[in-house]
């Protein structure tokens, strides 16, 4: 029994070392990104624009800071037709599963641009691919789910593209 357990532990440790050797060991450089997103919610559609900064914590994890503007128009047939405009500030992390693939998560505040003093908690999760271009710069393509928690809850899915200028 002990022998089987020892062999299993050795196999798992060697598998773990093999996975670590496949991950990129090159430190990731800081990047400033400019992005655009096509937004589709339950009863909303629109566009989003973002400015983000990311820097490495280690070889597979980056911290992120994002400022974005979301403009959504409702498809509901009520008068007047509701419109949502939010300026959002979030911080979070991006985890690289393998070289091009990543998962991300962010949380922060959304400031309603149409109603004074109306703020809500904003959070998002996403995934995508990042490909290096022009040396240290990169292009990201991905999707995210975002939600604003307040008196008027809002959630949507966005397809996004970002150009990251590397330093």
Structure commentary:
With 167 residues, the chain is mainly β. The chain has a single domain (30-166), classed as Porin (Beta Barrel). It is built from one helix and eight strands. The chain has one helix at 2-22, and strands at residues 31-41, 44-56, 61-74, 83-96, 101-112, 119-133, 137-149, 154-166. Strands 1-2-3-4-5-6-7-8 form an eight-stranded antiparallel β-barrel. Strand 1 and strand 2 (44-56) form a beta hairpin. It is elongated. The termini are far apart. Mean pLDDT is 84; it is low at 15-26.
Strand order of the largest sheet: 1-2-3-4-5-6-7-8
Distance between the termini: 54 Å
The multimeric state of the shown protein is: single chain
Residue stretches low in confidence (pLDDT < 50, at least 5 long) are: 15-26
Global morphology = elongated
Give the count of helical stretches: 1
Give the helices and strands as they follow along the chain: HEEEEEEEE
Number of domains: 1
Largest sheet: 8 strands, antiparallel, barrel
- Strand proportion, as a percent range, falls in over 45%
CATH names the topology as Porin
Classified by CATH, the class is Mainly Beta
So, CATH architecture? Beta Barrel
